[in-house]
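Sequence and structure are kept together here, with a separate record for every protein. An example record follows, reproduced without changes.
>
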Amino acid sequence: MIHTYLGETIRFEIKYKNRTSVGMTIDSYGNLEVQAPKGTPDEKVLHLLEEKWDLIQQKLKEMKDRLHGPQKKLYGDGENFLYLGKTYPIQIFQDKTIGQDYVVFEGDTLQIYVKKLEDEKIRQALKRFYYQQCKALVVKSIDTYKSYFKTKPRSILISDSKTTWGTCDSRQQLTFNWRLAMAPREVVDYVVVHEMCHMVHLNHDRSFWRLVGKIMPDYKEKENWLALSNWKMTV
């Protein structure tokens, strides 16, 4: 079906099922499906779509952007970057007197102070900020969940991995991806719990997942956030 509202048109499919309420899902390709109780009038479905119109448009745009992959970042005032699961604009300040370029989170802005107004300098300042924030977030999460474990990590490292969010080796050394600072705190908590569980079970066997689920029953929601959002966690 096709429906136009507020000057925008969306395509969707309706499936009538044995259920008591109307629900909606958007798959990874941006296809919208509406599940409705058998006998539901089309007018009711369309009314629900219009009530959720802004949210639907937002989700459809996210899926479209995800399919296209990460966009090339610009390093000027107003460009948006993720931090703790939300998007914030950057604001650039030149200060020739500082010893090292740095970033501070002020209000709803990532303020970047650099000696030279160069894209690579701004990018490196942002990356260093994420490294620092990731380390602080990980340390806090470990402290929060340490009571579930008999041992503690031997060391904590922050890495620039292109393939993993975290690792745990046989020496119980934990390593985490600096990009986690872009994720919501609860997602960081999940990755930390995941790797701490590897201190008990080094592989991903049934016992490992039982332990993860015992500590964090909704861990699949966190995994889903990473799966859907990793493409935009970049500088």
In short: The first strand starts at residue 2 and ends at 5.
